[in-house]
């Protein structure tokens, strides 16, 4: 079962992780983490997990790297030299726990074993055999995510919404007392923004110091958006769905902001609108659930949404994935705007 | 019919091997080349050419489905735009931060030093 | 029992332990977040490894009446999609905290921040 690609990819992953342990330059560590995510995405594809692979590539190599880089720009770039090269107590703990885990895996079935309990369980059988008749979406992962276990996905959308609210509380500015239309918690005042600091504040519009990047970005952003829409609505038929599409959409806008400056990007997508979209996504998901109850079914029972259960399932999955896509895109963008708008500020209180 | 597929298979395999060799050369370049700018130059060329050759090799082996060919073509177009632009961004950022390209003109007869 | 069939799980455990070591031993907070990410990815890989079937394919139904196509188990994939999203939520909140800590104390090393807090 084991093939050369598996062995090599895992080996590269281990080497990358070792580099991450030893590196003290955090910028290089962030790049290695991005590489780690990309390699693991490749490994997921080899292991037939295509939806997980596209999500890991988009989230790990895209959003995670962006947030880490923004954090490093605000804080420090290098790690302080440790007192000891290798810490004894964590090493002992890690060896003991690792040894116990390896001892635990000795009872496990082999990789790829078709008689493993996870393959023969009746739930797996049901999903694989009945989902074509009950839900009708070819991508079984989407049908499980949005229909069979739609309630979990609702919780997941709420979790990521909560993260955005938490980040807003930590990093957001105060809403200005005079309720100007453009005031928003996503734009804290008197901060010099990170993204494109050379592009809009300090540089006249005609200077175009980043001509090549501007042209490339302008030609790429429409296709990125279209790809995001494709991934969103094609999630039933191939790998994709709401999460991946939301992340791709956010990445497109973030690319625009990085090259042209935060202010032009916020003219395209005003922070007030972003706040509304944040809430709208989660609200839409819950509203669909309540609407199915109004129509006589249970919470999130899509069969009652339209004539015939399969049509209802299709419509329900479409709407729910759209809600998730809106939520994820808004959350990722809100996080980006918060981190990028933070700017270069020193410590506020010297102790 | 059989000969065409055989030729396409062989050509595809050769393109794949060539692409892999080019990428391997890029890896060796990161390791062996002395300065930042020389490394960027090698990587910029190889990281666009290597995947480009690999995509052409894959296209030779996928002529039965035009959807796959279109998708490979789109990936190739995206690669051709973003590959050189990202190397440009790297080099520009390094230059703006003050990293000077080192000149190897000998100063008073001493050997060139690496940064 | 022993042998190359379990190689995947052992490598996953190696990665997991490296992430755990970084989380515990390094004082820099951003490094800890990176270690947490490594740990997360290795857990996801563990579940995905459990889902794979020898000779299977991605769990997307082949069009037409395919009959006997072997699919890999889709349930762990769904769980891992949720796990990735929750992981990024985690990372985002952790990094927000790091930024605020830096703004308050001027440092993101755990021992320096501890010293400054003890002096108050």
Rg of chain A over CA atoms, rounded to whole Å, is: 23 Å
Quickly give the structural class of chain C: mainly alpha
Largest β-sheet summary of chain A:
none
Q: Mind describing the biggest β-sheet of chain C?
A: none
**Given the structure, what is the number of helices of chain A?**
14
Oligomer: heterotrimer
Content of β-strand of chain A: under 5%
Radius of gyration of chain C: 20 Å
Order of helices and strands of chain A: HHHHHHHHHHHHHH
Which percent bin holds the helix content of chain A? Answer: 55-70%
State the share of residues found in helices of chain C, binned by percent. Answer: over 70%
**Net shape of chain A:** globular
Distance between the termini of chain C: 57 Å
Please tally the β strands of chain C and state the result: 0
Helix-and-strand structural type of chain A = mainly alpha
What's the pLDDT, averaged over the residues of chain A? 83
> How many individual β-strands of chain A?
0
Largest interface: A-C, 110 and 90 residues
> What's the helix count of chain C?
4
């Amino acid at each position: 079962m084991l093939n050369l690609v598996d062995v090599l990819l895992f080996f590269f992953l281990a080497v990358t992780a070792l580099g991450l342990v030893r590196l003290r330059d955090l910028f290089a560590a962030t790049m290695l983490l991005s590489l780690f995510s990309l390699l693991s995405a490749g490994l997921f594809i080899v292991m037939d997990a295509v939806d997980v692979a596209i999500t890991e590539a988009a989230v790990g190599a895209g959003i995670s790297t962006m947030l880490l880089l923004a954090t490093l720009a605000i804080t420090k770039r290098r790690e302080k030299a440790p007192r000891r090269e290798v810490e004894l107590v964590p090493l002992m703990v890690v060896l003991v726990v690792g040894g116990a885990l390896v001892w635990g895996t000795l009872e496990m079935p082999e990789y790829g074993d078709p008689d493993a309990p996870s393959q023969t369980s009746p739930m797996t059988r049901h999903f694989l055999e009945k989902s074509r008749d009950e839900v009708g979406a070819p991508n079984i992962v989407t049908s499980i995510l949005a229909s069979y276990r739609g309630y979990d996905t609702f919780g997941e959308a709420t979790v990521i919404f909560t993260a955005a609210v938490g980040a807003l509380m930590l990093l957001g500015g105060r809403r200005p007392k005079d309720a100007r239309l453009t005031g928003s918690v996503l734009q804290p005042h008197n901060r010099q923004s990170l993204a494109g600091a050379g592009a809009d504040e300090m540089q006249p519009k005609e200077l175009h110091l980043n001509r090549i990047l501007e042209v490339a970005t302008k030609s790429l952003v429409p296709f990125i958006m279209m790809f995001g829409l494709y991934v969103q609505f094609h999630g039933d038929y191939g790998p994709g769905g709401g999460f991946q599409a939301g992340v791709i959409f956010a990445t497109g806008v973030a690319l625009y902001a990085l090259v042209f400056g935060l202010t032009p990007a916020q003219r395209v997508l005003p922070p007030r609108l972003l706040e509304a979209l944040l809430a709208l996504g989660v609200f839409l998901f819950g509203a669909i659930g309540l609407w199915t109850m109004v129509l006589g079914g249970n919470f999130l029972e899509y069969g009652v949404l339209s004539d015939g259960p399969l049509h209802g399932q299709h419509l329900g999955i479409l709407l729910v994935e759209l809600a998730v896509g809106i939520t994820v895109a808004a959350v990722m963008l809100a996080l980006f705007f918060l981190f990028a708008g933070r700017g270069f500020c020193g410590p506020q209180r010297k102790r | 019919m059989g000969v065409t597929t055989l030729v396409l298979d062989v050509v595809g395999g050769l393109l794949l091997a060539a692409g892999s060799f080019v990428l391997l050369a890029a890896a060796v370049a990161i390791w062996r080349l002395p300065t930042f700018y020389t490394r960027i130059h090698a990587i910029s060329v190889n990281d666009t050419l290597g995947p480009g050759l690999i995509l052409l090799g894959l296209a030779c082996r996928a002529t039965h489905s035009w959807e796959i060919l279109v998708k490979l073509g789109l990936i190739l177009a995206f690669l051709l735009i973003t590959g050189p632009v990202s190397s440009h961004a790297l080099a520009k950022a390094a230059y703006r931060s003050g990293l000077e390209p080192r000149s190897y003109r000998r100063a008073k007869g001493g050997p060139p030093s690496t940064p | 029992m022993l042998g190359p069939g379990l190689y995947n799980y052992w490598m996953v455990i190696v990665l997991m332990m490296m992430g755990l070591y970084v989380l515990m031993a390094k004082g820099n907070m951003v490094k800890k977040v990176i270690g947490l990410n490594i740990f997360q990815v290795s857990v996801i890989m563990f579940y995905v490894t459990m889902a794979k079937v020898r000779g299977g394919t991605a769990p997307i139904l082949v069009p037409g009446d395919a009959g006997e196509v072997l699919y890999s188990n889709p349930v762990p994939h769904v769980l891992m999609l949720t796990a990735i999203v929750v992981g990024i939520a985690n990372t985002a909140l952790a990094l927000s905290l790091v930024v605020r800590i830096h703004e308050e104390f001027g440092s993101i090393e755990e021992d320096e921040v501890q010293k400054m807090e003890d002096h108050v």
